[in-house]
Amino acid sequence: MNVKQAVLAGMLAAGLGLAGCDVITSIQKGGAVERLFGTTSDGQAVKLFTLKNKSGAELQVINFGAIVLSLKVPDRNGQLADVTLGCDQLSDYESKTPYFGAVVGRYGNRIAKGQFMLEGQTYTLATNNGPNALHGGLKGFDKVVWQAQAVQASDGPAVEFSYLSKDGEEGYPGSLAVKMVYTLTDKNEFKIQYTATTDKPTVVNITHHSYFNLAGAGEGDILGHEMMINADRFTPVDATLIPTGELKPVQGTPMDFTKPMAIGARVNQDNEQLKFGGGYDHNWVINQQQAGELTAAVRVVEPKSGRVLEVLTTEPGVQFYCGNFLDGTLTGKGGKVYKHRYGFCLEPQHFPDTPNHTNFPSCVLQPGQTYTQTTIYRFSTVK
Ligand code: GLA
Fold this sequence. Notes:
CATH topology: Beta-galactosidase, Chain A, domain 5
Strand order of the largest sheet: 12-13-14-15-30-24-23-18-21
Shape: globular
Largest sheet: 9 strands, antiparallel
Bound molecules: alpha-D-galactopyranose
Helix content: under 10%
Structural class: mainly beta
Number of domains: 1
CATH architecture: Distorted Sandwich
Number of helices: 3
CATH class: Mainly Beta
């Protein structure tokens, strides 16, 4: 429905005292409140959902790009802060932000030269990142309006999203029906459950692109955060950030986060991989007991606030990006300027450029199969 229809529906529903209608000024459903957030440049109404759990945490999401607008979690003294970077205006999300808070797909991360072969046919994608394709194309999953509704899950308030990516959209074969459930669990977890099905063989690599700063969005850089990644290997890249195909041991390199280490401790070292990324912008191979098993992948501690973020995922890899492209030109929520390395992303996913590497875990989805992923961003504190 467009804005006019939404407003009319709202007026009608309010007048008739209806609950549960599509977009009304404000609807309460379980632990979620829904209201109109804005209108896209092509006139589509965008809804904002505010979820509160029993522990006092709050998650705000919109159905444009299924974007996380804010996520407020307590520090060691119970003080809430918004730990995700973002903007106040929908128009900024449409044209300015580097995937702040968004879902990324159909294929997150890079595909070399925007080309891959599947079942004997070559597919060509837009090259939007130097010579390569990045994050699903010119209008990826982060730039479309998703169907969305608030629901009450057994473990907390939730929003269900769905989107049909048509056959040929952004060059990918097959109509892909994607569903996601975002839950703010009562244990202060932001949980994402994804499923997708296709009508033709295709490639799928969906991920989440929140930028975190556990001291609070806009409150300085993230170099003092201490990180541990449960990975003995990473996928080294060439100068355009395409994997060479090797799974390289992290031992003895600045990529070794097997023990807690400040993000900033080695980020500026004279190292070819760090030079290629302008810092950390690499995929780690998670130590999984079994493919597809929910595994604790990353743990980050912000020493001053005591906030802790753990990432658990069923995906085989995680892209850790430390905000190297943030340069102070973007003004975020509440007028705060996001400078170099003011946020970091932990993007659970299949390895970059998998369609061109037969030795990587496959990202091909066949008709009749269901793509599934569960990722949990779990917040807690230390003394
Ligand atoms: C990912 C990529 C980075 C960059 C950011 C967005 O993390 O790997 O190179 O594109 O997204 O700016």
